[in-house]
Design goal:
Helix content is about 0%, strand content about 45%. It has about 425 residues and is mostly beta strands.
Length: about 425
């Protein structure tokens, strides 16, 4: 998978040697307001690939800073997505942040945001391994350039630190990745699971060295009012726009058939005031020995019922499971709640192991202001109230979760 084509930055993996500044990877620039800063390219502990960028600084007094950055063209009136992986080895009397500045054609900064502000990702002490710094937003109409920087800021007198940086991405196509090589789930926005239900595993992997083992028992405590072990990505489905979603799933050979369904991947939305709680507008489920893909839609401004009839429920694909092997899923979806007769342009296309298995030009969304959020894992709703089913335990593996906006297709999200 060539992730670089989604990246506005060059040399985001710090693989391409040194710049004019000794030890600073090519394509990157450094400056400072005070103190001392040095750089080194290291191969001992990269997040991915073979190289990471090490930044060391000292003698930074309060309010003074040192940074490395790239400045690149950016398209106005479109979303941006920034992501990186940082490992703080030492930090004394300082804080460290990823910062994005958006500039007009005169070079003036018209908007500035940092991970210290976004999601309150403020690094003020050494981290336990790699931490995913991330933020997104809308590019202003008069912005033409973006400056993505990693900045150390003095808080106390004579502050210092040593920080590793790797896998830096600035995209306007949104390529979010869940590869589960880390022993944390920081690439996702929300985790709904009991302790021990989501564990990076090296027993099977679709790519890299690890996948995510997901397990659920009927005796597990409720999480968010349900028997679930799920990860969520927020704001990945706006009405009137198209997206591509991809992921790989592995069902063990001892997966037991159960006529009680479980949800594996779901596209949900938080409704407008007055809407009833509704089932997902698109879902990949398992029932018995079959995969099932089903969609729902409602063009009413306020949804008053969650019944199958009110939400126009339709199964668009069902077929037998394949156990003991990885299965690659890709979805291309243009979200729209309007019927075609009313000008709707919605479609849902599904690929299984590279083969198109469903293609439907029809509504697939709710008439809501909020964007979809994507959930993947295990959710077995019949267990919510203690119902007995044909099994008491579920386990599967997930790998290579990817999401793009209208700039991507199913080919971009397949492993």
């Amino acid at each position: 998978m060539d992730y670089s084509k989604y990246n506005l930055l060059g040399n985001y993996g710090f693989e391409n040697g040194a710049a004019l500044t000794a030890g600073l990877s090519s394509g990157w620039i450094n400056d400072k307001s005070a103190g001392y800063t040095s750089f080194q390219l290291v191969t001992s502990v990269p997040y991915e690939g073979t190289t990471a960028q090490l930044m060391s600084f000292s003698a930074l007094n309060s309010g003074k800073w040192a940074r490395l950055y790239q400045e690149v063209p950016i398209t106005p009136n479109r979303q941006y997505y920034a992501s990186s992986f940082v490992r703080v080895q030492a930090l004394n009397g300082a804080r460290f942040e990823m910062r994005l500045e958006l500039l007009d054609d005169s070079g003036a900064v018209i908007q500035s945001r940092s991970t210290d502000w976004y999601l309150n990702q403020s690094l003020t002490a050494p981290t336990n391994g790699w931490t995913n710094l991330k933020m997104n937003g809308m590019v202003p109409a008069n912005a033409v350039k973006a400056r993505l920087a990693f900045r150390a800021i003095g808080v106390d007198a004579d502050s210092s630190g040593t920080v590793l940086i790797d896998a830096v991405q600035l995209s306007q196509t949104q390529m979010q990745m869940g590869r589960f090589e880390l022993n944390n789930l920081s690439e996702f926005d929300k985790v709904d699971a009991n302790e021990g239900a989501l564990i990076p595993s090296d027993s099977v992997a679709r790519s890299g060295k690890k996948s995510l083992a997901v397990q659920l028992r009927n005796t597990d405590p409720l999480v968010s009012s349900g028997k679930r072990a799920e990860l969520s990505k927020l704001d990945i489905g706006e009405n009137g726009k198209s997206y591509a979603y991809g992921f790989s799933l592995y069902l063990p050979t001892d997966w037991k058939s159960d006529t009680s369904s479980e949800g594996i991947a779901q596209w949900h939305v938080t409704g407008d005031p007055g809407d009833v709680a509704r089932s997902p507008s698109l879902a990949l489920m398992i029932q018995g020995d079959k995969w099932i893909v089903a969609k729902r839609w409602d063009d009413q401004a306020i949804s008053t019922s969650n019944s199958l009839a009110a939400l126009h429920y339709e199964v668009i694909y069902e077929a037998p499971l394949n156990k003991g092997k990885w299965e690659d899923w890709a979805f291309e979806v243009r979200w729209d709640y309007r019927p075609q007769a009313a000008g709707g342009t919605g479609y849902t296309r599904v690929w299984r192991n590279g083969v198109l298995v469903a293609s439907v030009n029809a509504p697939n969304s709710y008439n809501d202001q909020n964007q979809k959020y994507f959930k993947i894992g295990l959710y077995k709703w019949d267990w919510n109230n203690g119902a007995a089913t044909q099994t008491t335990y579920r386990k599967l593996y997930i790998d290579d979760v990817r999401i793009t906006d209208s700039g991507g297709t199913h080919l971009d999200v397949m492993p």
